[in-house]
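Annotated sample (chain length 217).
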Amino acid sequence: MTQSEKLSYFSFGAIILYFLISLLIERLIDYKLPNYYYYPVIIPLILQIVSSIIRLTEFENLNGHFEGTISFQEDLLMINEIEYKYTELENLSIYGNSFSGEKTQNYRSGPMYGNGIENLISFTHNGIKIKKHFQLNSERHLDELQNTLIHIISSEKIPFKKEYLDFINEEHRSYILFEFLVGKLIAEKKIECKEGLSLIKFKSNKDAQEFKTKYCS
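Output written by the structure step:
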């Protein structure tokens, strides 16, 4: 639990407890509390405001740390200086859509930013299952990873499989590099035109029509 969350929960609990006690006193004892009795509740209200301010620059807690590196090179994948040729990888799966500094889904409380650790690569090499979580330090690193994956798939550094297109996230499916990749696959009859059109996130119907005319006619 982060500092802003602790402050938020503590102050909110204090406010609820304070008013419950006040309600019990007035109802059970039938005693009308003076107005100044409620003045101390200002303190937890201030803590609520402070917690909201802290969260604006706060990152999620990172339990532990990441060691080593992962590098996608032209013909091979390198993990902690161990080389794995793309052609020798089986059951490859890559999820890379999280970067340090991205906004979380915590709209009202909790840390505003994530640490970019929701990324995963797994594959089988020489019968050995390998699974690694990895961190992307910035949005630029995310872009570099996505562009590299598009290049690897497009140049068939790994034998093409339709499921490899799932490695590309929603945002990068609107990029021109992904459009070229899908157009190439349609031209090579590896995917159908209709399927290719559904994969790309076109910015307008005009763009979709132009793509269809170029690659599907």
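Annotation: The first strand starts at residue 70 and ends at 72.
Annotation: The mean pLDDT is 91.
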